[in-house]
Amino acid sequence: MQFTKIENGYMIYVEKGENIMESITQFCIKNKINNAQLSGIGAVKNIEIGAFDTDNKKYIRQNFEDTWELVSYQGNISLKDDIPFIHAHVAISDHNLDIKGGHLFEATVAAVGEFILRKIDNNVYRELNEDIGLPTLCMVDRS
Amino acid sequence: MQFTKIENGYMIYVEKGENIMESITQFCIKNKINNAQLSGIGAVKNIEIGAFDTDNKKYIRQNFEDTWELVSYQGNISLKDDIPFIHAHVAISDHNLDIKGGHLFEATVAAVGEFILRKIDNNVYRELNEDIGLPTLCMVDRS
Amino acid sequence: MQFTKIENGYMIYVEKGENIMESITQFCIKNKINNAQLSGIGAVKNIEIGAFDTDNKKYIRQNFEDTWELVSYQGNISLKDDIPFIHAHVAISDHNLDIKGGHLFEATVAAVGEFILRKIDNNVYRELNEDIGLPTLCMVDRS
Lengths: 143, 143, 143
Known about the structure:
Three copies of one chain form a homotrimer.
Chain A: E1 2-6, E2 9-15, H1 20-30, E3 36-53, E4 58-64, E5 68-80, E6 83-93, E7 99-119, E8 125-129, E9 134-138, E10 141-142
């Protein structure tokens, strides 16, 4: 992984063969980044994505081994059990330019992974919401 | 809706059962947010999206009642008739991880809706452009 | 093209008939923007997108002449041969709201093109990586 500090965050280049979620999570732990906005593009393989089944309160998962374009990666970083946790959704496209998408569990960079992380100076955290079946964001104010 | 102030905007958690466009528009009116950048992810239902037919100058619309992952939400906020107006496009994925997408009219949060709003200190507004058939952005400079 | 200066960048409205990549690249050259984050939405036509074939180290390309919603546009700007270079991926949707996506070569605005460019005060550049077959980002630090 290469990176460079920018005004309120980092440009991050996750390199070929590196796992995106694992690499950036470790980067956040090391650099004490508790909250952030994260977005990026690239080309990935060995992708596991899913969709949340709200009735059964679990993720339906699919794996894609081939190389796909990482068309869109949008996510946020919050604290879960006091550790930086990335919640990210992706759209990926194959060589026909057809698209799949969903919640990202993990993906390995096949060519490049180019991300911009914008730090947020806050301590938003996640706690299990039993009604929803997911650890949801906990914030200060309510409207 | 939960929210927390961040450096130049807000993290916003639109909660289960709340309408995204309606909730965030009300939030912008209340907090005098005239211009902003808005992005997010989540899981939504009762979704109305569309594509603009440039020949007939009207939107083709489709509704999706089931729960879909909100894979990508990108938008901007400007003034239309002096009121904050959100223009947002989304990609959504079903339980097969197949994707649909387009201009978002409205969607209800099915599990979570996690957004980051970055305020822009400006007064960009929209005015009907009769050639295009849409209220388009009006800015200061021309290149 | 219309634009307005914002806190750390620009709101950019690429107008009907203008080419997105060409217009924004020229804008970056003129305004000496070497590094930036770029995102946007709109409606486009005469679109050329592709997927990188990592085995043959070349892009597979497809063209779409009709008008499509620009559902998501995410990119970054870095220096390539000392000139600002946009690397962007897009998702586009047709009138059935079906989606295609990939690496964007060029697209012409069919109705509107609404972008937000956030300048990054840095000198990240691209250099051909022969193992990958693409000009990849070169940054200061390694983790």
